Amino acid sequence: MKKRTEIRITGLGGQGVVLAGKILGKAGVYDEKHVVQTQSYGAEARGSAAKSEVIIADKKVGFPMVRKCDVLVAMSQTALDKHLKDLKEDGTLLIDENLVREVPKIRARVFKIPATKMAETELKSKIYANVVMLGALTKTTGIVSQQAVEKAITESVPDKTQENNIRGFRIGLELVKQ
Amino acid sequence: MTSKIIPRTHFWQGNEACAEAAIVSGCRFFAGYPITPASEIGEHLAWRLPQVGGIAVQMEDEIASLGAVVGASWAGAKAMTATSGPGFSLMQELIGYAFMTETPCVVVDVQRTGPSTGQATKGGQGDVMQARWGTHGDYASIALSPNSVQEMFDLTIRAFNLAETYRTPVVLLADEIIAHMREQIIIPQSDQITIINRKKPKPTDKAFFNGEDVAPMPSVGEGYNVPITGSTHNEYGYRFTADRAVHKQLVESLIGKVRNNSEKIVDYESNNFDDCDVGIVSFGCTSRAVYETVDLAKKKGVTVGFVRLKTIWPFPEEAVRNIAKNAKVIIVPELNMGEVFYEVERVVHGYVPVIPLNKIGGGEMITPEELLAKIIESVKKVD
Question: What ipTM was estimated for this complex?
Answer without folding.
Answer: 0.91
